[in-house]
Amino acid sequence: ILKKPFLTKVKVAPGNIYKRGAEMGSKMMGCDEFPQIARTETARAIYLIDVDTCELVYMNKSAKDMLQLAYEDDSYCGKKCYTVLQGLSSKCSFCRNNLLTTERMFVEEIYQPLVQRYLQVKSILFNYMGRRLRLEILYNFKEEELEKQKKYLDQKLEQIRWVDNLTGLYNREKYSSLLKDIETKKIRQIGIVDMDINGLRNINATKGYQSGDRILIRIAALIKSVFGVNSFRVGSDEFVSLALNMDKVDFEAKVTALKAKFSAETDFRVSVGSLWSDNCRDIYKKVSQANAVMEATKSFGYKNLTADYNHKAESAHRLLAEIAEGRFKVHLQPKINLQTGLIEGAEALVRKIDEQGVIISPDNFIPDYEENGLINYIDIFVLKTVCRMLKDWRERGGRVFKVSVNVSRVTLIAEDTIKNGVAICKKYGIDPCLIDVEITESFGLLEKELLVDLIKRMHEAGFSISMDDFGTSFSNLELLSQVHFDTVKFDKSLTDSIVDNPKTQILFKAAVSMCREFGDTLTLAEGIENEEQLKVLQKLGCQLGQGYYFARPLPEDEFWERYIKK
Ligand code: C2E
Ligand code: MG
Ligand code: MG
Q1: pLDDT higher than threshold 70 for residue 29
Q2: Which of 175, 232, 293, 481 is the most exposed place for a label (fewest CB within 10 A)?
Q3: Digit-coded pLDDT (tens) for 417-440
């Protein structure tokens, strides 16, 4: 009987509220008399109506359930369909009985006051024992409607799960899930932008949360306008954008564009750290490096301080005050040519003077400042002091040679370091080629591309670069093959064992010849404390040395007397 439905979509307006009708039907049908179809289709909600008398002939349990009819038995059988189903006392205005055929299903959506919603009704006509019966099947919804609803719900769920409510960007969970399978996604190039609003907490506290929210929404819009959908709000004031398969030039142009947009805003400042790589290996390392760059940018630059009232700014103010009070001093240790015994340069080493006037060695305070991201203030102070010293020496007619400064990772990756370094040199009239920058092994942790790029830019600015503490980590070997260093400084631990340990000698010898073969990379041994060490190092061909055997790090005036004064 059930042929392909003849889809006439008719929406029927709500009828009157159901009220129980009083009319009784002429004759109730016994169970055995039900047409076959009605008895077999038990799972479906079915009822039968006599189209000529409008009597409800039969209704199965599913239909009763669906219509939430309170009748226990079949007592409504024989009542008018419009009374039972629509609560009317006369025929429904929308009655389609005259359109029914025995050929095709008639499909309509009828409002059911009993359950106060539309149900889909499929009807077909058939003749049975001289009566024309309408078989109706009730459906909650069309299947495609259900499908649509499911899709909509899925979308909503996805939104709740993946999307940040306030900004409409993807949230941290989406970000994590993308990172998790990024390696399987065959992505060749990746650009990561890490962003953090400066002092959002302060904005919330002083201007109210609504202002804070407005700023977050504005920032999200700016980020999305440049980096599109792969932008995430990963923390209350932190955002990340990922640029997938974008080449370096395009990526950097976008980062620059975004920064320009940020700096055009007056209500907030955003610290930005970015990193680009031609592969997605060690994605978590890359992500944390981009974050470290952002952190460094955030802590960098005195200019940021006024806009930044958080705890870090307080510590920074304290540190700057201590620097201004002269609590930090720069000592100098000579670098000696091991063949001639003459001074070739010096290393600047910072000291802190405590309230009692006791000198504190850098190992006791540098790690703290590295951790809280303030080390760049010290490094910049040392560079300024060194430039000032070189200027003095020149003006007082002393010798002038290269001086090394130690630069921490945080300082190096801060955005403006090279620019600032050049500006400081210029201010004191010092050629950057008189400044050597010592970077330590922990730079092996930095992304190779980033380091190669930084060192290239420092070379272009005129600085020379030393690798400090070589031999404390094996990853340095790889770094040596990637980056050109002007000097490699062998760690004191190697010098310590150079006399007694033949293996150290072999290692040293190989490293010296390796540096020679690199071209013009000089070798320097740190921590030479006695003549035996010096002798072995000379024999092994090491060119430069530093250590208590020659001189301890000296205060400025002592250093002037011993090494600078002609
Ligand atoms: P470093 O750059 O490897 O400096 C060499 C360290 O070895 C210095 O320690 C120096 O005093 C010490 N030294 C030199 N010759 C001898 C020797 O013959 N025997 C012994 N036992 N030690 C010797 P210092 O001055 O305590 O500095 C420790 C570290 O602190 C430095 O290691 C450097 O990594 C860091 N540092 C010093 N000044 C600065 C700075 O201005 N900025 C940054 N970021 N780090 C700095
Ligand atoms: Mg050093
Ligand atoms: Mg060292």
Answers
A1: no
A2: 481
A3: 899 999 999 999 999 999 999 998
Give yes or no for residue 41 having a pLDDT over 80. Answer: no
What pLDDT sits at residue 143? 63
Q: Which domains does the chain carry?
A: 4-140 (3.30.450.20), 148-299 (3.30.70.270), 307-564 (3.20.20.450)
349, 409, 532: residue to mutate for ligand 1 pocket, most atoms within 8 A of CB: 349
Q: Which amino acid is at 313?
A: A
At 25, is the pLDDT very low, low, confident or very high (cuts 50, 70, 90)? Answer: very low
pLDDT score, position 32: 41
**Which residue has a Cα nearest atom 15 of ligand 1?**
547
How far is the centre of ligand 1, averaged over its atoms, from the C-alpha of 561 (Å)? 22
Can you give the pLDDT at residue 440? 80
Report the sign of the C-alpha dihedral through residues 348, 353, 359, 363, in that order. negative
Quote the tokens at residue 430: 């010092």
Phi, psi of 26 (to 5 degrees): -75, -50
According to the model, what pLDDT value does residue 39 have?
47
- The mean predicted confidence, pLDDT, of the chain is 84
pTM of the model: 0.57
- What integer pLDDT is reported at residue 560 of this predicted model? 97
Which residue is it, tokens 């929210």?
213
CB of 379 closer than 6 angstroms to any ligand 1 atom:
yes
Q: Which atom of ligand 1 is nearest to the CA of 469?
A: 3
Q: Return the DSSP state at 535.
A: H
pLDDT at 21 over 60: no
Check if 350 has its Cβ closer than 6 Å to any atom of ligand 1: yes
Whole-angstrom distance, CA of residue 84 vs CA of residue 286: 70
Exposure on the CB side of residue 389, measured as CA atoms within 13 A: 31
Euclidean distance between CA atoms 279 and 90, whole angstroms: 76
Q: Tell me, in angstroms, the distance from the centre of ligand 3 to residue 388's CA.
A: 24
Is the distance from the beta carbon of residue 525 to the nearest atom of ligand 1 less than 6 Å? Answer: no
Following DSSP, what letter does each residue of 53-95 receive, concatenated?
Answer: TTEEEEE-HHHHHHHT---SSSTTTTSBHHHHHH--SS--TT-
> Is residue 362 within 6 Å of ligand 1 at its C-beta?
yes
Ligand nearest to the CA of 529: 1
